[in-house]
Design a protein that fits this description.
Bound molecules: adenosine-5'-triphosphate, magnesium ion
CATH architecture of the largest domain: Up-down Bundle
Strand content: 5-15%
Distance between the termini: 71 Å
Largest sheet: 6 strands, mixed
Low-confidence stretches: none
Helix content: 55-70%
Strand order of the largest sheet: 6-9-10-3-11-12
CATH topology of the largest domain: ABC transporter transmembrane region fold
Shape: elongated
Number of strands: 12
Mean pLDDT: 88
Length: 572
């Protein structure tokens, strides 16, 4: 049912092509059905009567009709293929755009490997079924039913052979297909598993090598691979039995026609040409039965695909775009008694967090690992929604603001900087497509990335994920990317941690000197990074335990003093 709905939804825009498919298939079937009759007439009226004129005339007609049949068939397949490929293309586009709107939580639910399989292999299964439906499934019933009518018209005395052969064929095919169906319907998940293992290994290849886990990983892959192999082998074995069996039924039926027909011909009750006509229609009917039952084998696999595709398409992104149109008015950021629990978790990660950053201020957030700092940054960027309280950006509650407008005012440097495959310049222009080279170099200069970019060149290649750059280089490129955007608010999530203290200091000085008007939220672990901030938010276990300047906190705040002392002793 889901399969039908999905297939209809995506082929319906091309309904006129479907109409063409039906028309051409119909023409093709009618033409195919005419041919044996003419063939028989040639035998009866031409060959047996020794009438060459009839042979030439009817032979000519057969030639013309066969040619037309081939054209009609080709056009039907062409239209069918266009519909199927377009449906596949549209499905992939929809899955992609749906998945792009997913929040982190939705992503976690599906997993990226599965989303990729869904968008490739699953779509392919459905697409294949649409194509086969437009070709085989549509013509097979026409040929079978038409064949039965034409066979009856040709001669009723042999019709009992059809009555025996078709049910036998149906039973045999049903048995074979019913054994294939369970194998095919689990194949999708097995392929999913192979993809997941392969992907995980490729992404984590360095770790796998470093921990000398290649043999173990290889075993894991081999097991999954073997699983697919065994399933495919089982289908192979079934096919080995199926083909000879089907051919046997076909051959026995034709022998039966010739045997019983031969007796009738001998007795003068049947013309030999009619017997030949009957034989050809019998073949058509049996082929129709074989095609239809074989098609049913593809349905479960496509149905599994359709279910998996529909799941993606019907998932409403768990973060709805703000209903309001409000755009941030200035560069302030405010947390007002924010409590937040990750969806599905019982305990909140943040409790009653309040602080405010004025325009142009630098507010630092410091706290131990797991304290909830990244979570705070994610809330500002509205990657999640607060459980209670509110987060205001530019004076507007982010839930009531136009999310695009909020994002436009933010320059986010995530904790794990991600670069896209392309060039350094194309990555920087992610921040602002229209930025000219001067603006790019300007951003690189502030981000302290000018040195190594000059060396490599701004058009040097960036591998997927930015793996051909060092951690610190990646971090600085991702800072530059945020700067190119010229946002009102910059969010640095632990973005200075991979930099040495000198570079860290130069970067902060450059930010102060050239982007003094921009509000900066700086998450950091290092005291030196935060000590000059206008305000420091000390966060511990999801709660604000201190708020103030470095000197104040040093005197009044126990947690902050502990952090400072622990770092001083390390440096000493
Ligand atoms: N997507 C998530 N789903 C559920 N829980 C999460 C998720 N992300 C983080 N957490 C939990 O929230 C808590 C705070 O995580 P967060 O990433 O905000 O810490 P952090 O202060 O940024 O730490 P670090 O300094 O190590 O980056 C952690 O206990 C973590 O387990
Ligand atoms: Mg973090």
């Amino acid at each position: 049912m889901r399969l039908l709905r999905l297939a209809w939804r995506y082929t319906q825009p091309y309904w006129w092509l479907l109409v063409l498919v039906v028309v051409f298939q119909f023409a093709q079937s009618v033409l195919s059905l005419l041919l044996p009759t003419i063939n028989g007439d040639i035998l009866n009226d031409g060959v047996l009567q020794g009438n060459t004129e009839v042979i030439w005339r009817l032979g000519g007609w057969m030639l013309v009709l066969s040619f037309m049949q081939i054209i009609a068939n080709a056009l039907a397949i062409l239209c069918g293929a266009i519909v199927a490929m377009r449906a596949g293309r549209d499905m992939r586009a929809d899955i992609f755009s749906r998945a792009s709107g997913f929040s982190e939580q939705d992503m976690q639910r599906f997993g990226s490997a599965s989303l990729i399989t869904r968008n490739t292999n699953d779509v392919q299964q459905v697409q294949m079924l649409v194509l086969m439906s437009c070709t085989m499934l549509m013509s097979a019933p026409m040929l079978s039913i038409g064949g039965i009518i034409m066979a009856l018209r040709a001669d009723a005395s042999l019709f009992w052979i059809v009555g025996v052969a078709v049910p036998v064929m149906l039973i045999v095919m049903t048995i074979i297909v019913s054994r294939l169906i369970p194998i095919f319907s689990t194949l999708q998940e097995k392929i999913d598993r192979i993809n997941r293992i392969m992907r995980e290994q490729l992404t984590g290849i360095r770790v796998v090598r470093a921990f000398v886990q290649e043999p173990r990983e290889k075993r894991r892959f081999d097991a999954a691979n073997e699983d697919v192999y065994m399933a495919m082998l089982k289908t192979g074995n079934l096919f080995v039995i199926a083909f000879p069996l089907v051919m046997l039924i076909v051959e026995i039926s034709s022998v039966a026609v010739i045997w019983f027909g031969g007796h009738l011909v001998e007795a003068g009750e049947l013309e030999i040409g009619t017997m030949m006509i009957f034989l050809q229609y019998l073949m058509m009917i049996l082929m129709g039965v074989i095609m239809v039952t074989f098609m049913t084998m593809m349905i479960p696999r496509a149905a599994v695909g359709a279910r998996r595709i529909t799941e993606v398409l019907e998932t409403e992104p768990s973060l709805r775009q703000g209903e309001g149109e409000a755009a941030p008015r200035d560069g302030t950021v405010e947390f007002d008694n924010v409590t937040f629990a990750y969806p599905g978790a019982d305990a909140p990660v943040l409790r009653g967090v309040s602080f405010r950053a004025e325009e142009g201020e630098t507010v630092a957030i410091i706290g131990s690992t797991g304290a909830g700092k990244t979570t705070m940054v994610n809330l500002i960027a509205r990657l999640f929604d607060v459980t209670s309280g509110s987060v205001r950006v530019g004076g507007v509650d982010v839930r009531e603001a136009d999310t695009e407008a909020v994002w436009a005012s933010l320059g986010l440097v995530p904790q794990r900087p991600y670069l896209f495959s392309g060039t350094v310049a194309s990555n920087l222009r992610y921040g602002d497509e229209s930025a000219d080279d001067e603006e790019l170099w300007n951003a690189l200069d502030i981000a302290q990335a000018k040195g190594f970019v000059t060396e490599k060149g701004i058009d040097s290649r960036v591998a997927q994920g930015g793996t051909n750059f060092s951690g610190g280089q990646r971090q600085r490129l991702s800072i530059a990317r945020a700067l190119v955007r010229k946002p009102r608010i910059l969010l640095f999530d632990d973005s200075f941690s991979a930099l040495d203290t000198a570079t860290d200091a130069r970067l902060r000085a450059a930010l102060d000197a050239r982007l003094g008007h921009v509000t900066r939220i700086v998450v950091a672990q290092r005291v030196t990074t935060v000590q000059n901030a206008d305000r420091i938010v000390v966060i511990d276990n999801g709660e604000v335990v201190g708020l103030g300047k470095h000197e104040e906190l040093l005197e009044t705040n126990e947690t902050y003093r502990e952090i400072v002392e622990s770092q001083m002793s390390v440096e000493a």
